[in-house]
Structure formats: structure tokens, C-alpha cells
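Many introductory courses stop at the sequence. We go one step further.
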Amino acid sequence: MNRTTLSLIAATAALAAVTGLGALTAPDASGSDSPRAAEYLPVERTSLLCPPPSTSDLAETTYTSFTPTTEGTGKDGKADLVPATGDQGGKSAKKPPKAAVKPAEPGTPVSGDTSGAQSPALIGTAEGNTAPGWTVQQTTEVGAGTGRGLQGVNCTAPDTEFWFPGASTGEGRTDYVHLTNPDDSAAVVDIRLYGEDGLLESTVAEGITVKPKSTEPVLLSTLTDGSHPDVTVHVVVRSGRVGAAMLALDDKLGGDWLAASADPADTLVLPGIPADATSVRLVAFTPGGTDADLKVRLASPSGLITPAGQETLHVKSGMTSAVDLGDLTRGEAGSLVLSPTDRSVPVVAAVQVVRGKGDERETGFIAAARPVGTRASAVDNTAKGATLSLTAPAGAAEVKVTASAGTGGGTAVTETFRLKAGTTQNVKLPVPSGLKGTFALTVEPVSGGPVFASRTLEADQDDVAAFTVQTLPDDRGTVAVPDAQQDLSVLQR
């Protein structure tokens, strides 16, 4: 093998370890495609982006950072959360917020606070032993006004495409999509809105420039005319990369962050609908050229059941479909499972969930989730105000859950839970002994079928059932690197 080929392989392996590229394999010289198993190594660098937390002067926001302990990492690492330096919708970020916390060593969460509507977006970078599985959440309490309640969002990695079913330009709704650019060059973004009749006309939703190291908040109602109660938002990055997050505010029902749906797929899981939900509204969209017919099932504590009168959902191609499922969970843990009735058609989906009654209602959102995979983490948990929901839609599974030390002290504890096939279980959280502050949860499947998870936070707010739900996808803390010993002679020139 010549020197050029060796250099190429070395560079490819290094790039995979840093960026999280998937395993690369090559067939052997005989033509039989039987590569050796790749080795999984911890990522060496990762980025996270946090949107501006609120438009309300009454907002109180907590940021919590946590890196789980990962085998194979070195002793050194560093991580930073710094304010985006560009324009924040006309608001200048002259002082770094207290929320720009200095992440602690792996295994220990750390938090910081900020208040008001002046807090900027944050750009985060972690290297070394703080990079694998790095998780940051911002949790905001808004005491009154539009969007009052509890709002939570996981800070996300930059990407080039996002789907947000469940948005709205309807009466009483104020929805923003926040675009954050972490790089030194400008990003160019297109935003497409799809209503119940298809693509909504807009003259200003294409070619949106997001300046370097800055955030651009885009109010959905300024992109199109008319009132559209159910909208799917598609964010496509033409140049560069961004983090995208959707803040959905309601005059009467409070508000929350709407996370991006998992990539379009024929089967989706929306985990952890609160047991006391008084209203559940499912919104779905198919981006392909074929209509989708979906089976709608609820993974309950006893197994998969079909909601009476809502057995299926027809989703027209390129059009947003929505259906009210009422008080679907009826006091029990539950997760929605969507699957094709016949042919396979990729879809995206989310649910809007309402808790409480009358003037004491609060709303939240759960988007279709990626599976937990190897490991997932949830931060900012309290002993009494957090619920962990685990779902095994396809087969029985065993899951290990670890509660870290607290932000102010305590000793980590671990418990194992067994899930029956097709069920959802709200588990009693393990709580660190001697807990002070909040703690992180790490979820690791041990055996069995795929597991999906979400975490619900609750807060008492003048009798309002304030809550927020975050799904727990794989933290992508490791990356598959090809075996250096495998035969790559086909690459020789």
C-alpha cells in the first residue's frame, strides 16, 4: 500500500473520531463484502447550541451541563458555553450571562442561572473527556403572560435540516424558530411552511442569512398570510450549518419548546405522554410524493392498545394532518407508536399535550424521538419534580438508569428496570444519596429491543400544571472507527 493511501486512511479515522462519522468499510480484494467489526471510540470534540431562552422579562432560566463518564477517554478535557456575539433580534449581548457555566469534570453536573429577556443564545464546545455525551439543558419558568409556565429544551448540535410538525400561525399562537450559527462564516437558510392544504406561499422565507456566531429569531406569522392552526416547518440550510429550535407560545395555554422530529421514517415513537394529560393532539406530515396511512397505537403499562375511534390516520402527501386524541392516557403512562398500515411511507410527527383544566392549563410538546441507543442523559432533575418514561415498543428490554451526584453534592446510584414488549413504564427515579441540588440521569439499555425515553419536569406555579418534556435520544458519545488491520487493498492506485 502506498504512502498516499496510508495517509488517507489515517486522516479518515481521525476525522471519524472527532466528528462522529459512522463506520467506514471496504470490501476485500476478492469482492466479498465482509468487513471486520469496527471499534467504537469516544468522540474527541462536540458542539452544542442553546437558543435565547425567552422573550419575557419575567423569565428565570437555569442552564445545566453534564458529561457522563465514558470508558476510553483521557484525563484532560475542557468545555465552554459562551454567548453568541451577533445581533439577538435587536438586543445586544454586552455581558456574558451567568448561565454561561463552566462545565465540570465527567460525572458531575453543574448549573447556572439568568433572568429576563436579554439572555442571548449560547454556543458550546467540548473537547477531550468532556465531549462524549455532553448534555446541556435550559429550563425556563415564566410567571405570567403569553407562554407562562415551564419551558425546557436540550441544547442541540448544529445540522443542515430540521422538521417541526406541531407549529402554528393560528389565533393566540406566537411561534418563533430560532436559528443559531456557531461558525465564522454566514449561513443561508430556507424555511418552508406546510399547512393542511400544502405548501404555504411566502416571499421572505428563502435565503435567510444568519450572521457568524449569532442567532436569528424568525416569527412564523411574518412568513405567510392567514391563520394556520397546524403547520409543519421545514428548515433547510443552503450554506453552512445552524442549530434550530422552535418556541411555541400560546395566549391561554402557556408555551414550550418544540424539538425537531426524528428524521422521516415509516415507524415513529413519541415517548412519555404525561399520565394526567387532558388533551393530546397529534400532528403528522409526509415529505414524499405518496400519501401515508398510519396505525395509531398507545404503548401503555399493559401493552399496545388502539384508541377507540382513532385507529388510523391518513396523511396526504405534502400536507399537514392533525387529529385530537383527547385524554388518551387516562391516568396511565403512555407513548404513541405510529406504523404503516400497508406500504412504507416516511413521516415526521409530534404531539401537543395539555395538562390541567380551565385557566390552569399548560401545554407542552413531544416530537417523534430517536431511540436511546447506547446511552442518553437528562439533566436538571429533582427528587420529586421529575418523571422518567421508558418505552419498549418492539420487544422486551432491560435498562440501567444511573442518577449522578448532585450539583451541590451527593453520591451516584444505579438501578435496573425491565420492560415488557409494547409497554411504557414511568419508573421511580433513583435519587443520589445525600443529594444537594439537581442531578443527571443516564439511561443505558442492557439487553433486548430498542428503547425510547423521555423525561418530564414539573413545577408548582399558582395552581398551573406547569411542565416540560424532553425526549432522550442517543448522546452520540462514541463513533465507529474502521479496523486498521482490515484489507483495504482495493484503495490502492
